[in-house]
Design brief:
This protein is α/β, with parallel strands linked by helices. It has two domains: about 140 residues, 3-Layer(aba) Sandwich (Rossmann fold), CATH 3.40.50; about 150 residues, Glycogen Phosphorylase B (Rossmann fold, 3-Layer(aba) Sandwich), CATH 3.40.50.2000. The strands form two sheets. The protein has a six-stranded parallel beta sheet with strand order 2-1-3-4-5-6, sandwiched between helices. It has a six-stranded parallel beta sheet with strand order 9-8-7-10-11-12, sandwiched between helices.
């Protein structure tokens, strides 16, 4: 893949979502990337010299946003992560059919963060390409030394989200923590989750990036068992820092599990994941590098600009 460091094609990262902020951090030093948060700001850019990539999980708002961008003359790329595909699939037949028609009309290129999401979109008659987004923690992971990761504690990291506990199987995760006292469990992402009755567990709620780096450095396992998922950035981050990942989907250098309680516990205490996952770390740093990600989106943009 060619790296168009000073490409003349302007790429606007549009919106106010956290993922846009992460993309901004990943594109530092590239002259052809800009961040735009509002339609008013977008008016300052020349539509003949720029295209727009955006992200929105709400189907109605995703269409409204695309329409506003399209009316300004820009070619549009939409990024899908998982929740957005689920939301589209849940719509009543007529609304879903109309939404798919409008998304295909308004958007020039659909990108997903996993091959299985691309397959799900294909069933919905939306063609897409694969584009896994790393996170800014890539830069911190690159600077982390081997010796900093060699003495990890038997800590299992689990993410849940307030209001969507069902999606992340929070009750099952709490039950697994209760049934596995030899391991320590740290829950993050949910300020409402309580673990006071579990001596081997704690809930930190929403944490900042520096706290996440420290948690990744000292934790041994990331457990993620969801009802539906794309290619979670958290898994990429965990691999960056040598964690063993137990996940209910197939990703290289991770341990596959189902949603069966007994099986998950067996995976967590298995001798197969006793050591630091340095092979997964090497794989992630090479495969999900910021440089490769930028090069890929520049390539897609260059191809799109020729149409």
């Amino acid at each position: 893949m060619i790296n168009l460091k000073n490409s003349s094609i302007g790429i606007i990262l549009f919106g106010e979502h956290q993922i846009i902020e992460q993309w901004q951090a990943l594109t530092q030093g590239y002259d052809n990337f800009s961040v735009c948060r509002t339609n008013k700001e977008l008016s300052k850019f020349n539509a003949n010299e720029h295209l727009v990539i955006y992200f929105n999980t709400n189907t109605r708002r995703a269409i409204q946003t695309a329409l506003k961008i399209k009316l300004k003359g820009f070619k549009i790329i939409k990024f899908w992560t998982g929740t957005d595909v689920s939301n589209l699939n849940k719509l009543p037949f007529f609304k879903k059919t109309l939404s798919i028609f409008l998304l295909n009309k308004l958007i020039k290129l659909h990108l997903t963060n996993s091959t299985w999401l691309s397959e799900e979109l294909k069933v919905l008659s939306i063609k897409s390409k694969h584009w896994i987004s790393p996170t800014p923690l890539y830069f911190d992971a690159k600077k982390t030394l081997h010796d900093e990761l060699i003495s990890k504690e038997k800590i299992v990291l689990i993410y849940t989200n307030e209001g969507r506990e069902w999606l992340y199987n929070a009750e099952l995760m709490l039950d697994i923590a209760k049934s596995t006292p030899q391991l320590k469990f740290i829950f993050i992402g949910n300020n409402a989750l309580r673990t006071t009755d579990l001596p081997n567990a704690e809930s930190l709620g929403v944490v900042n990036q520096n706290t996440m780096i420290e948690l990744y450095k000292k934790s041994h396992i990331l457990l993620r068992v969801t009802e539906h998922d794309g290619f979670p950035r958290m898994i990429i981050e965990a691999l960056y820092f040598g964690l063993n990942v137990v996940f209910n989907n197939v990703i290289p250098h991770t341990t596959l599990c189902t949603k069966n309680r007994k099986e998950i516990i067996e995976k967590l205490v298995s001798k197969e994941i006793e050591t630091v996952n340095f092979s997964g770390r090497d794989y992630a740093l090479k495969t999900f590098s910021a440089e490769q990600w930028v090069s890929q989106i520049q390539y897609y943009s260059a191809q799109l600009n020729k149409r």
